[in-house]
Amino acid sequence: xxxxxxxxxxxxxxxxxxxxxxxxxxxxxxxxxxxxxxxxxxxxxxxxxxxxxxxxxxxxxxxxxxxxxxxxxxxxxxxxxxxxxxxxxxxxxxxxxxxxxxxxxxxxxxxxxxxxxxxxxxxxxxxxxxxxxxxxxxxxxxxxxxxxxxxxxxxxxxxxxxxxxxxxxxxxxxxxxxxxxxxxxxxxxxxxxxxxxxxxxxxxxxxxxxxxxxxxxxxxxxxxxxxxxxxxxxxxxxxxxxxxxxxxxxxxxxxxxxxxxxxxxxxxxxxx
Length: 272
Ligand code: AMP
Ligand code: MG
Hints:
single chain, 5-stranded parallel β-sheet, about 10% strand
C-alpha cells in the first residue's frame, strides 16, 4: 500500500509528458479496499477541514480546484462527498454549463475569471475553461485554428492566477466506457436520478473515442508546474474519494496556512 505522497506522485501528470489516458487503469486500487479506505478518507476530510479553517482565517491566498471528466465520471459525487469537508463560508462551487449568449459574446475565459476564488477562498470548478478544448473541439463548435491556440492561452491564464497567489489543482476523473454504461443505466433505472439522464448523453457517448483524444491533448499540453493535472482512477468511488481528499489535504498542508497573529491584548483578560 503506497504512502499517501506516493499516491499523489503516481497520479500526477508530469509536466511535458505525453499522456494516453486509456493506458491508465481506472480500476486501479493501489492495494486499498473499500473497508480499509473508509477510515483513511475520514482522516483526510478532517485534515481538509482543519487546514481550510486556517486558510480562511489567514485570508491571504486562494485555492482553485478544477474537476473534469466525461459524463457520469463522478464530478458531482466528488463535490458532495469530498468538498463537504470545507466550510461553505469560504468555499464556492461554480458549475459551467453551455455558455449563455452573453458569455458567448466574450472571450472564453471571461465567465471563468469572474468565478476564480478571492483571498482565503477555495473555488471548486465543476467543469471549467477546459470545456473549450473538449466539447468545443469534439463538436467543432469553434474551428481548429481557434481551439488549438487555447492550450497556450489557458497555461498563460493559469500562470497569471498562480502569480497572484492562487494554488491550482486539477483533477481528471477517469472511468472506462463500460463503467459509464453502468452508471447511465443506473441513472435511468433510479427515479431519484433519472432527471440527470437524457438521450443527448447517449449521443455524446457515441463520441467516446473523440473525447479520449481531446483528453489526451488537454492533459499533455496543460499539466504545468503551476497548475498540475492528476488523473484519478474513478471506476470506484471510494478510491476516487481517497485520492482526491489526500491530494487536497496534502496541497493545503504544503501551503502551511497559519492563523493570523493575535492582536495586542492584555494577558489574563476576563470578559465580564
Ligand atoms: P452537466 O455537467 O451534465 O450539467 O452538463 C453541462 C453541459 O454543458 C455539458 O454537456 C458540457 O459539455 C456543456 N458545456 C460546458 N461548457 C461548455 C462550453 N464552453 N461550450 C459548450 N458546451 C459546454
Ligand atoms: Mg450531464
